[in-house]
Amino acid sequence: MDTFIQLVVDGLSTGSIYAALALAIVLVNQSTGMVNFAQGGMAVFSAYIAWWMTTMGVPLILAILISIIVSFLFGAVIERYLMRRFERGDPDTAVVVTIGLLTLITGVVAWIWTYNNQLFPSLFPLETVEVFGAAISVRSLGTVAVIVVVMALLQALFIGTKLGLALRAVAVNPYSASLSGLPVGRMLMVGWGLAASLGAIAGALVAPDLTLTPGMMDGPLVYALAAVILGGMSSPIGVVVAAWMIGVLENLAAVYVPFIGHDLKIAVPFILIFVVLIVRPQGLFGRKVVVRV
């Protein structure tokens, strides 16, 4: 039982990292109507900003807060001067642009800070607490707590605030939104900025578990996209629950299913995607889109 509890909590912690990126992807989609593959690269850039400031003597908490602010501005600038030229065109073209942007950001980060592994300080103490006989790391519990708070805030943003409603209105129909007096361009910039800020949180959470490298978010980005598909593009709560499912089931399958093990556990989320898309194509918590003709 102690092994099971430890695997579940560690899976929730890992899933929370996937969830942070997944929430950023959902935020961009809800505010612009597109899928942003560059989110991983933006998270890496934010993590390096925070790490660089800690090497200059800035306290970790302050460095992360500054990186979140820098990331917001970075995301807003990218939307304003690059993505705006593609957002309302062919969706496939916009997706290709975000993939190219991911490669570009990763390359620039490597050019500035090299590909050498760097140690990122942990936001939480490197201690363990005993729960039903299992040694659970404080870092795992803290990571889960951070994502629960971010999920609640994002859900409240979309449902209970004028800003959230404006972001959704701009994503659904920017022309009608502009006729209603909404500043469409400004809303798009805010959406990208908020998503980049979420990426900064993801980078700060994943960097202590992995060594800080330009490609550290490539794997989590794949899992985040899987969580978005499973949870539904329209549901922040759904993608977090899906990310937790992926993290927990991946850990349990690696230990309790012999033919999967640690080598094939990456197949777990894709098996889940296959099953969910057959039963519920809009995702576990997503809304079915109805189009009038």
Estimated radius of gyration? 19 Å
H/E element sequence: HHHHEEHHHHHHH
Low-confidence stretches: none
State mean pLDDT (0 to 100 scale): 82
The separation of the N and C termini measures 55 Å
Strand-pairing-aware structural class: mainly alpha
Task: List the domain count as a whole number.
Answer: 1
Protein name: Branched-chain amino acid ABC transporter permease
Family: Belongs to the binding-protein-dependent transport system permease family. LivHM subfamily.
Main location: membrane
Organism: Microbacterium sediminicola
Briefly characterize the structure.
This protein is mainly α and 293 residues long.
Please render the helix and strand layout as text:
Blueprint: H1 2-32, H2 39-55, H3 60-81, H4 91-113, E1 128-131, E2 134-137, H5 138-160, H6 162-172, H7 174-179, H8 184-206, H9 218-231, H10 236-256, H11 267-279
Antiparallel strand pairs: 1-2
Helix pairs in contact: 1-5, 1-6, 1-8, 1-9, 1-10, 2-3, 2-4, 2-8, 3-8, 5-6, 6-8, 9-10, 9-11, 10-11
